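Record type: monomer structure entry
Structure origin: computed from sequence
Chain ID: A
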Amino acid sequence: MAFDKPLAGHIALVTGGSRGIGFAIANRLAILGADVAICARNETNLESAARELQNHGVRVFAAPADMMIGGEISAFIAAAREALGEFDIVVNNAGIGIFMPGYKATEEQWDCVLDTNLKAVFLVCRAVAPGMIERRRGHIINIASLAGKNSFAGGAIYCASKWGLLGFTQSLAEDLRGAGVRVAAICPGSVATEFSPHAGKDISKLLQPEDVAHAVETLVTQAPESFISEILLRPTQKP
C-alpha cells in the first residue's frame, strides 16, 4: 500500500455525494485511494461528480437514489456492491433542512426531514452492517450537526432529526464495536454550501466542505486500536 494512498483497496459509499460536503468527502476518499460509490437525486450533478472522481484513478459507481424512498436506497446499495464489492467505509451524508417554527410545519415537511436525515441512515446501516460484521472491520460515519446538540428558533424539525441521529449513532457504535466496526458522528457548525441560508454571515469565516472531508479522513486513517466516536467541528471565528 503506497504511503500516499492509505485507502488503496478500500471501498467507500457516500450518500449525497454529488456536491457540497458529500462530494468533498468522496473526493478526499478517492484521493486517498478508495474506490467510491455515490448517490444523489440529480443525475446531471452525479455524472459530473463521477467524472471528477475518476480523475484520481479509482473505480467509481454513481447512481441516482432518493433517500426518502427505501426501495431506491436498497437498489442503490445492491448495485454499488455488485459493481465495487463490500464496503469498508460508509458515510451517511445526505440530508435536508426545513427551517420554520415547529408548530407551523406540516406533517409532510416533518416526514421529509426525518425520513432523509434519520430513517435513511437506519436503512443504509441495516444494509451494510452485516457485511462489516462478517469481515470484522469497517467505518460507518454519520454526518450530523451541532444542531443535534444546540437548539435554535426555526430549527425544530432539523434539530429533532440530528438529535435523533446522534442517539442512533452512539447506540449503534456500542452495538458494533465488539465486531471491530467503528461508528462515529461528525457534527459541523455552519458550512459554506447551498444547504442552508447564511444571511448576515461572513461566508469567508464559515467552515468549508473540505474541513468536513478532513474530519472524515481523520476517522478512517486512525490506528486500529483507537476509536474516535464523535467530532465537533466549528469555525475558528464566529461568522
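Annotation 1: DSSP finds six helices and seven strands in the chain.
Annotation 2: The two ends are 41 Å apart (CA to CA).
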